[in-house]
Design a protein that fits this description.
The complex is a heterodimer of chains A (about 325) and B (about 325).
Chain A (H helix, E strand, L loop, with lengths): L1 H37 L2 H4 L3 E6 L23 H10 L6 E5 L2 H32 L2 H16 L2 H20 L6 H25 L3 H9 L4 H12 L1 H17 L2 H6 L17 H8 L5 H33 L1
Antiparallel strand pairs in A: 1-2
Helix pairs in contact in A: 1-13, 4-7, 4-10, 4-12, 5-7, 6-7, 7-10, 8-9, 10-13, 12-13
Chain B lengths: L3 H4 L4 E5 L4 H15 L3 E5 L2 H10 L4 E4 L5 H7 L1 E16 L7 E2 L1 H9 L8 H4 L13 E5 L4 H13 L1 H6 L13 E4 L1 H11 L3 E6 H6 L3 E2 L1 E3 L5 E2 L3 H10 L24 E9 L3 H17 L1 H6 L7 H14 L3
Parallel strand pairs in B: 1-2, 1-3, 5-10, 6-7, 6-8
Antiparallel strand pairs in B: 3-12, 4-8, 4-9, 4-12, 10-11
The chains are: A mainly alpha (about 325), B alpha/beta (about 325).
Chain lengths: ~325, ~325
């Protein structure tokens, strides 16, 4: 019995690892044509789906906005346009794809979400764990957990129809923008952070708190010097979980970020994130476009991996 | 209690274009009531529809972009138009109930060259209307779509610069820095509705359902035409859809008086070797052409003119699938 149990748990643990490695490999394989074509320059290239003459090198072309003359045949123009649409091996030009704008969009929208959600989540958690009377804490606690259960499409529609006009009234600029997407993303990750932080704060032994009070500490001092240090690990864990969710959120952001491959100059400008670029273009993509989308997915995989490992190994170790 | 009809698999399976989805859905419902035939059409997008047809995973597929006769021969497919729809230039401008857009204005806005509403190209066609000095926000589809294909095809016909630089595509990186993308028709319509001084391309059905303001646009012979059913029908009647080329043509910007320029046909693909299945599909479309015309116009689509449906029936008869 003992042996079976041990093996079963070993299999479950290995399963995750195998799954992760195989996702990594299949992403890499699908991205391979694009990786071969654009190399690491893909990461810093800000053009997406831009046709350039084939003679020039990729890097010098980002600023070249001249239209590309194609051979226009004398035949009926209708067939010409359709032929251009069907002809995927355009000999005179090639198409450049680069991930810089969606990468920046992903990181910035996540950053806005974290900056917005973190203090509020901590406030909610402290209130629920330490300050609120038991009954109220229970009700608000359930509300917070329900917020986590709302599908992201609902956040997207709510954001688009009700929140985006308000944002525009307050800050100006566009309704769908980095800021709108970031703030709604912040609301979406709030419940994760608040609920987990509350739970880990509640694990602080009463003995510790009582001894602090006995020494004359105020409630604020107990929260700051006893509860926070004690539940640090749980708090960092909650931040990591929220971060992971924010980096990969697709549906809500697709409605709210504006979905244009443009570098935002202000917070109220529209831009695009990696998951949104994939969701919008996957259905109609073939060839190098499809492979470049997989390249983006591959990069998101690596970004998430790096961000989460930094959070885990650096901050969690510091917390010890 | 489950009735037998709801547990049995559909008699016919189709997938593809989302542009005609609502009218196909209405026809399928009415046809089921009339004949008891179950048809299942999934709106996956034109490219997915073409892939499904090539792989023979469906009995018929919808595509907004027609396939050329060579490609049809290679994949062993038949092709005929299913329904015609129109795309509107929907806008949001307070106190401007009527906006006229010339061909130069439409391509200028799409190219990002016309940035303000009081630009000369726009005001020239709008005598007596005071247009504000406000920045234009151009709203487009963010996801790949047949509507975008048909609109960019139309742009290719009215602007050489557009044709040489971008061409007709289902998804593209739009030029200029004055535009935002909305997800799906819902997203585009909502953004136009909520953003003052915005304009975008929306299919007629969605523009009507969302009560959007629609611009009067200039057609090939220079007339300014309001987006109305009779103007769409005039356009459909002028369209040169040739059965000898498997109806391979995009009908945007037809010549002729009274024709609304931004119209698009959407197509049905059938596998050549499944003649029995094909007969069931053509029976459905034959019934819909006859009985579904008012359903189509209620939803904002254009019933195919009789001359065209007769050509389609002849095409079926020639191929032996009627």
């Amino acid at each position: 019995m003992e042996k079976i149990f041990k093996n079963l748990s070993l299999i479950s643990a290995t399963f995750v690892l195998v799954l992760l490695v195989s996702i990594f490999i299949s992403l890499f394989n699908s991205a391979k044509p694009s990786i071969d074509e654009y190399g690491l320059g893909f990461v810093t290239e800000s053009a997406w789906d831009k046709e350039v003459p084939i003679e020039n090198s990729v890097s010098s072309l980002a600023n070249d906005a001249k239209p590309i003359k194609k051979e226009v045949k004398a035949s009926s123009d209708e067939d010409d346009i359709l032929a251009a649409y069907e002809d995927e091996d355009e000999p005179l030009t090639k198409t450049v794809f680069g991930g810089w704008i969606p990468i920046v969009g992903t990181l910035l929208s996540t950053l806005i979400a974290m900056v917005f959600a973190l203090p509020i989540a901590m406030g909610i958690a402290v209130f629920l764990a330490e300050i609120a009377p038991k009954n109220l804490s229970y009700v608000v606690g359930i509300a917070i957990e329900l917020l986590a259960a709302i599908p992201s499409i609902i956040f997207g529609m709510w954001g688009l129809f009700y929140f985006a006009p308000i944002i525009q009234k307050v800050v100006g600029g566009y309704q769908v923008s980095l800021l709108t997407a970031g703030l709604v993303l912040g609301v979406m990750i709030l419940p994760f952070m608040a609920a987990i932080t509350r739970d880990s704060m509640r694990t602080t032994p009463d003995v510790l708190k009582e001894s602090a009070y006995a020494l004359g500490a105020t409630k604020f001092e107990v929260i700051k010097d006893v509860i926070f240090p004690y539940s640090k690990k749980g708090i960092i864990g909650s931040i990591i979980l929220a971060l992971g969710r924010a980096l990969g959120e697709t549906m809500a952001v697709a409605f709210l970020i504006g979905s244009v491959f443009m570098m935002p100059k202000k917070l109220s400008d529209p831009t695009i994130s990696i998951p949104v670029a994939m969701a919008n273009n996957f259905g109609e993509a073939t060839g190098l476009t499809l492979s470049s989308l997989f390249y983006l997915a591959f990069l998101l995989f690596i970004i998430s991996f790096v961000v989460i490992s930094v959070a885990k190994f650096y901050f969690l170790r510091k917390a010890d | 209690m489950v009735t037998t009809s709801s547990v049995s698999a559909a008699d016919l399976k189709g997938s593809g274009a989302t542009f005609p989805y609502s009218v196909y859905q209405a026809w399928i419902g009415a046809y089921h009531k009339a004949t008891g035939t179950e048809i299942d059409y999934i709106g996956k997008g034109s490219s997915a529809g073409i892939k499904d047809a090539e792989a023979r995973t469906v009995d018929f597929a919808g595509s907004d972009a027609p396939l050329n006769p060579n490609k049809l021969a290679k994949d062993k497919l038949y092709q005929f138009p299913g329904v015609v729809g129109a795309i509107t230039m929907s806008y949001n401008m307070p106190n401007t109930p009527k906006l006229r857009l010339s061909r130069a204005a439409i391509s200028g806005i799409a190219l990002g060259e016309i940035k303000y509403w009081d630009n000369k190209t726009i005001t020239a066609a709008n005598h007596g209307v005071k247009l504000p000095h406000e920045k234009i926000t151009f709203v487009h589809r963010a996801d790949g779509s047949g509507t975008t294909f048909n609109f960019t095809y139309y742009l290719s016909k009215i602007s050489n610069k557009w044709k040489e630089t971008y061409g007709a595509k289902k998804a593209l990186n739009w030029p200029g820095d004055h535009h935002v993308g909305g997800k799906g028709n819902t997203g585009v319509a909502a953004l136009i509705k909520q953003t003052p001084y915005s304009i975008g391309y929306v299919d007629y059905a969605d523009a009507k359902n969302n009560n959007l303001q629609m611009a009067v646009v200039q057609n090939k012979v220079g007339e300014f035409i309001a987006p109305e059913l009779k103007a769409f029908q005039a356009a459909a009647a002028k369209a040169s859809l040739d059965p000898r080329k498997d109806f391979y043509a995009v009908i945007a910007d037809p010549k002729g008086k009274g024709a609304y320029p931004i119209v698009a046909a959407t197509f049905i693909l059938l596998p050549k070797e499944k003649a029995d299945m094909d007969k069931k599909v053509t029976a459905f479309y034959d019934w819909s052409f006859k009985n579904g015309q008012s359903l189509a116009s209620d939803l904002g689509y254009v019933p195919l003119p009789d001359a065209l449906t007769n050509k389609i029936r002849k095409y079926w008869a020639e191929k032996g699938i009627n």
